[in-house]
Design goal:
The chain has helices at about 10-25, 40-55, 70-75, 90-95, 115-125, 130-145, and strands at about 1-5, 30, 60-65, 85, 105. With about 160 residues, the protein is of the alpha/beta class. The radius of gyration is 15 Å and the shape is globular.
């Protein structure tokens, strides 16, 4: 897979670790920055990586900032993006298995290297289960189109 990677200055060190993990699992990294720990605005980097996923230039993305919250909020503004904030392996698994998440957001300040590796590994290796979960993902897509998901019955 092609994995877009991005961080702000607070997530820079985590991004460097994530790049190693992603390549160790045989995936290609597309680095959208930042290139160092000098202050930058996280929405700029979240937008660039999320657009790559939205345009299918990347299969998924992993973003890091201080808490992961800002990246998650910004990425989720892009049509077709299902960005999630994960702090553990269970959330990483469920986000892929049930929600077909396509962007993983992580905290550069709160997650150590060992847990970072576990979360990224689970998220990269978990496939979407489909079935009843597909109906729910379709309802999320309907919301993006301005539709009431309660009116979507046969998806």
């Amino acid at each position: 897979m092609k994995i877009a990677i991005g961080s702000d200055h607070r997530g820079f060190e985590a991004k460097q670790i994530i790049k190693v993990i992603v390549t160790q699992f045989g995936h290609e990294c597309i680095d959208f920055g930042t290139g160092d720990s000098n202050p930058v605005d996280y929405p700029d980097l979240a937008y660039a990586a999320a657009m790559a996923v939205s345009k299918k230039e990347a299969d998924r993305a992993i973003l890091a900032c201080a808490t992961g919250l800002g990246m998650c909020i910004a990425a989720n503004k892009i049509k077709g993006i299902r960005a999630v904030l994960c702090h553990d392996e269970l959330c990483a698994h469920i986000s892929r298995d049930h929600n077909d998440s396509n962007i993983l957001c992580l905290s550069g300040d709160q997650i150590g290297e060992v847990m970072l590796r576990k979360i990224v590994e689970v998220w990269l290796n978990t496939e979407f289960a489909g079935g009843r979960h597909q109906r729910r993902v379709n309802k999320i897509a309907a919301i993006e189109e301005g539709k009431d998901p309660r009116e979507i019955t046969n998806t």
